[in-house]
Every structure is written in C-alpha cells, then in structure tokens.
Amino acid sequence: MRNPTPSTVAESERDALTGLPGMATARNWLARHEHGFVHAMLLGFHRLRSVNLAYGQSGGDLALAEIARRIAGFADDELGGESLVARVGGGEFLVACDSTISRERWQWLAEALVRRISRSLPMRGDVLHLAPRAALLRGMPGETGTALIDRLDQALESLQQQAGRRIIWADGTHRARGRSAARLEADLIGAMARDEIGIVFQPQYRVDDGRLTGVEALARWDHPQLGRMGAETLFAIAERGDHVAQLSRHIAAKALSLARDWPDLAVSLNVTAEDLANDAFAADFRALLASSGFRPHRLTLEVTEHALVSDFARSAEALAELAADGVRIALDDFGTGYANFRTLKALPLDTIKLDASLLHEADSDMRDRAILTAIVAMARALSLKVVCEGVERESQLAVLQEEGCDTFQGFLRSGPIGAAQVTALL
Predict the structure, then answer these.
(1) What span, in angstroms and rounded, lies between the C-alpha atoms of 305 and 338?
(2) Measured between alpha carbons, how far is 334 from 347 in angstroms, rounded to an integer?
(3) CB atoms within 10 A of CB 174
(4) Do 243 and 191 form a contact (C-beta atoms < 8 A)?
C-alpha cells in the first residue's frame, strides 16, 4: 500500500492546504504499527515565516503545497511497504515507513528527500531554495505514536538551534554508523563500472484505446547491503562526490541501449538541472544518440521547471538544438502551480505532463475537473500533447477519455517493469 491519498482519508482528517493526512491520521497510522519497527522522520522549515513576510500568506501557501507534493512524490518513488506522509504542523511534515530498512538506508533516504525538497522553487519572478531540517528515528516496539512524534519534535527543536546541521537522529547521534559517505560514493562508481545500475520502465498507454505507446526510463540500484535505491537516492549520493553528470549519462546510455530495438516505442528520459548546467549538454547528447543507434524521433526528454531556472535562456537553447534533430521535449510536473506562459512560449515543447496531484479527485470534485478541462484546452490551443501521471482508478481514466487527453501512466495498468516485460508486452 502506498501513502494514503486524499480519497482514502476522511475529509475532516485531511489538511485543507496540501491534501495530506493530518496529525490525527498520523497518530492512528502509528498506533496500528506499535508492535513492529517503524522508521520515521520529521521535516521542519524554519524559513517559512520569511516567505510569508516577503510574498504574503498566499505565497507561503504555494510554497507549502509544493513542498508537500515533493515529499509525497518521493514517498511513492522511494519507499516500499506501507508508508505515511502527513502534515503535522504549520511547517512540519512526518514521513514514516514500516518496511525493513537499515539505519544507514534511512539516513540516505532522508538526505535524498532533503535534496529533492531543496531544488529551486520559482516564486513570483524569484527563485527560492527551502532546505528543511530533519529528525530521524527508529521507533521502538510498543512505543505510542504520540511518544514517537514527541521524540522527533524534541530532536528537531534541538537541531534548529545548531548552525550547519541538516539531519539529526532522535537518539542523539549525528548519523548512522557504518558505511561512510565516501565509501558509498565509491560503491556507486563501482556499480556504474560493473553495470549494476538497473533500469526499469514505466509503461505509458493511449487514453482512447489502451494501446502501449511509450515508456519512461527510471533508475534503480540494488545495493548489496543497503537494499534497493531509487533515482533520487542515487543522485543524492552522486551529488556529494560531483558524479551527477556521470550518473545521468550512464542511465541515459543504458536506457537507450535496452530500448533501441523496440519498434516505434517512445522512450522518455528525465533531464536534471545538472545536465542543463553543462554547456556541452546538447552536443554530448547528440553524440550519445549517435553511438547508441537510437533514433531521435523516438526520444522524449522530460524537464521540470525547477531544472530550468538557474539559466533559463541557455537551457531553452540547448533543448531547441535537440528538438531540431527530432527529439521531443516534455514539461514534467505541470500543474503544480509554477509553470508560466513564458515557459510554454520559450521552450520547444511537444508535450505537457500533468502531475498526479491534478488527478486525485478529478473524478469526484467539479473544481478539480474544471481545472483539468482548462489545462487540456490550453494544451490543445498550443498543439501540445497531454500525458497524465498517477492514474489509479477506472473513474479517473474515464475522465481523461472525456477530456480528450492523449496518454496516461499509473498503477491502474502497470507499475515500473523490466526490459524483458516491455518486450513481452510489445
């Protein structure tokens, strides 16, 4: 079971701003897991008051909604078993998981989550970087939810008084003993050299007839001691040792190699901010396509707005060069509140990819449905295709069919699968 969505939580127990479960739901979830081992982290944002002062209450609300979306997305991508994401205070979020996770892995998951949250956040013409602080713990069997949250809260309060530190364990230690960051970076470099970084593919289907039309490539690493790590954790490790560009190229090369011989199946790759910061990005990617034998017209590069903000003009120019070769460009995470008309006008876009949060209640809430209708109408006016993420219910798919969306992906049809399974589907 993935993190509870708004549709599975009573209206009175949801946070009205973010749609996440609130404190009552968090306590109930923890109470159901009192007799097992639970890993939990409490994230706090001490700069939110400054955001409210600078941009007003509405600006602070936008920032909180985006933070909540990033945390929930991380939980869906990276946490196995049953997980919880809840807003338990004004600027505090609780993440908990009942899977078997080592202390070291929970530390690295926390660092990866901090990295995702800390990405550029556009705000009314400015760019914010809201880096949280996190308190971690492993709950003890029989410990009540109230006691667990209290331990986390005390540790986070202590951490807020310490300059320079971002993560603390609620038992008083600074980080997990065992594998050092340098050793883990070395493990990652070795894994790339030995071709141990795996690729899974998220199938994408046509809305009108359900035909398989494409896949999104995602990285996975089965570390021999720490278990499976998703792309966010991989890039958090790579970032510490300045290996992001190497990792990104490795993932792209392997995905294109695996998918090269699939007939006419589109493949999507995610582009990072670090990729776009490279002056030679377009030239390097051209060389990669040439060496792999992958046809450019089958490739879609997915880019989020936060990846563009450091140098929008240079990023747009690099993407335009690749688009001229036939590569398609998609704006990912559309609908989270920050994409503007400048972005839609300046980029050589072929597709907008709607964030899953837009679809959570589009089948039951008329306001959400109206927003979806307006976005699809805008996309049609701009001759853009519409891809929808996070489709989990037949009623959601019915709405997409009525609205005329092009493509969908989500657990309604399939989660990520291996290359052999894609071949079987074809």
Answers:
(1) 8
(2) 14
(3) 10
(4) no
Compute the mean pLDDT over every residue in the chain, rounded to the nearest whole number: 86
**Residue 360 pairs with which residues in a beta bridge?**
none
Dump pLDDT digits (tens) for 209-225: 999 999 999 999 988 87
- Given a contact cutoff of 8 angstroms between Cβ atoms, the answer to whether 93 and 42 are in contact is yes
What pLDDT, in 10s, does the model give residues 86-121?
Answer: 999 888 999 999 888 888 889 889 988 998 898 878
Question: What is the residue whose two structure tokens read 């400048």?
Answer: 342
Q: Where are the strands (E) in 90-226, listed by range? A: 92-97, 121-123, 126-128, 133-138, 167-169, 197-206, 212-223
Amino acid letter at 403?
A: E
Contact 163, 130 (CB under 8 A): no
CB 20 within 8 A of CB 29: no
> Identity (one letter) of the amino acid at 163?
A
Q: What is the identity of the amino acid at 240?
A: R
Check: CB of residue 249 under 8 Å from CB of residue 291.
Answer: no
- Domains plus CATH for the chain? 6-169 (3.30.70.270), 181-425 (3.20.20.450)
What is the C-alpha separation between 310 and 313, in angstroms, rounded?
9
Task: Please tell me the distance from the alpha carbon of residue 215 to that of residue 218, in angstroms, as a whole number.
Answer: 9
Of 12, 14, 30, which is closest to residue 22 (Cα–Cα)?
14
Alpha helix ranges (H) inside 244-340 = 244-259, 273-276, 281-292, 305-308, 312-324
Beta bridge partners of 126: 123
Phi, psi dihedrals of residue 396, rounded to the nearest 5°: -65, -45
Strand partners, 301: 269, 329
CB count in 10 Å sphere of residue 7: 14
Helix (H, G, I), strand (E, B), or coil: what is residue 56? helix
H-helix or E-strand spanning residue 407:
strand 407-408
Give every CB contact of residue 10 below 8 A, 6+ residues apart in sequence: none
